[in-house]
Amino acid sequence: MATTLITNIGELFTSDPEGPLTIAGAALVVDGTQVAWVGRAAEAPDADELVDVGGRAVIPGFVDSHSHLVFAGDRAEEFAARMAGTPYAAGGIRTTVAATRAATDEQLTSHVARLVAEMRCQGTTTVEIKSGYGLTVHDEARSLAVARQFTEETTYLGAHVVPGGTTPEEYVALVTGPMLDAAKEHARWIDVFCERGAFDADQARAILAAGEAAGLRGRLHANQLTYGDGVRLAAELGLVAVDHCTYLSDADVAALRDSGTIATLLPGVEFSTKQPYPDTRRLLDAGVDVALASDCNPGSCFTSSIPLCIALAVREMGMTPAEAVHAATYVGARALDRDDVGALVPGRRADLVVLDAPSHLHLAYRPGVPLVAATWVGGRPV
Ligand code: NIG
Ligand code: FE
Fold first, then answer.
1. Residue nearest to atom 8 of ligand 1 (CA)
2. Is the pTM of this model over 0.85?
3. Which residue, of 168, 178, 184, 246, has the greatest Cβ tally within 10 A?
4. Which of 297, 301, 304, 309 has the most ligand 1 atoms within 8 A of CB, as the residue to mutate?
5. Residue 377, helix vs strand vs coil
6. Using CA atoms, how far apart are residues 20 and 331, in angstroms rounded to an integer?
7. What pLDDT, in 10s, does the model give residues 355-376?
8. What CA–CA distance (Å, rounded) separates 323 from 233?
9. What is the position in ligand 1's atom list of the atom closest to the CA of 95?
10. By alpha-carbon position, which residue is closest to atom 3 of ligand 1?
11. Closest-approaching ligand to the CA atom of 224
12. 3-class DSSP state for residue 238?
């Protein structure tokens, strides 16, 4: 395997398991697909190839642990109405379900390809993709089969909303029965939208238990639109992550701290729904681990940009830029129970981003500016 020395790195943000760590005047050696060495450029070992990044910053590729990319149509009109004062409601999901069912496999695949490419241009190197806009046995299974062409991190979200023409009881039976049977071969995870207008905590508990019995691991959307039992359910079940966490009681924060469940915050949603941003300091100060993800979807948040999420987390949620980058890389990887990506330390996959900037601070300092000069996956530029 050839080795590559990436040198003249103005600032290397390693996103260490120990916490955000930066090295000035750094270099990094890639051996095959993995990081083999990081340190001061002056001490770097020899390698077969040399890449000089001209003083730019290098950070790990982003790990976006929450997205809904398999869909058709858009809901720009709904967004415009929201900006004029109409509140976000879970029921809008059904509009996208109708468009998704009407789309061909080829249309869905090319749409996901376009969004994944968009993400990659913005530095995302690992992405989780959910189903959830099919809501029939056939449409959930094909949504997951499409997602699997792009990532191993696929999530069965048949329990997104109860579709028209069925009762909640009938639908939960479908989600935990024939739909799960058809979905499980294409999915690693199972998720439930536990929220007013979607599924309650008892339904979520039953759906996650069925998923676990079928070999899928649980995750949860919870406390997005209102206070509720979802976050405490996630903690009680010891899920690796619970996502949204916009409305949290003190008991929710304590439960997360005690269980070690990661709170995945999705600031693009608050931006696009005009909801209040979650208070990240309250979580971090309590000892809860926080991840950041995009939640890219046509309804509550149609951005694929982790740099935007980082800028929002810093400006609106009290995170330092270093905490925000760490949350979108190392902690994002943990939220997917991955220890092979998310940090630039020896042994991890060489997934990295070269920024057209001298430091990671610029991700928040220069919001909306395309700062990604290059994205590398598995030791090669893509
Ligand atoms: O994560 N919360 C549930 N699902 C998506 C929104 C889906 C939609 O509005 O289409 C979310 O915000
Ligand atoms: Fe979501």
1. 299
2. yes
3. 246
4. 297
5. strand
6. 11
7. 999 999 999 999 999 999 999 9
8. 26
9. 10
10. 193
11. 1
12. coil
Contact 83, 375 (CB under 8 A): no
How many C-alpha atoms does 5 have within 13 Å on its Cβ side?
16
Whole-angstrom Cα distance, residue 94 to residue 189?
22
SS3 31: strand
Task: List, in order, residues 6 or more apart from 53 with CB less than 8 Å away.
Answer: 6, 7, 8, 9, 10, 354, 373
Strands (E) located in the chain: 3-13, 22-31, 34-40, 49-52, 57-60, 62-64, 124-127, 129-130, 154-159, 189-194, 217-222, 241-244, 262-265, 290-292, 352-355, 372-377, 380-381
pLDDT in tens, 120-138: 999 999 999 999 999 999 9
Superfamily name with CATH number, domain 3-61+343-381: Urease, subunit C, domain 1 (2.30.40.10)
* Cβ-Cβ contacts under 8 Å for 263 (sequence gap 6 or more): 231, 241, 242, 245, 256, 278, 283, 288, 289, 290, 291
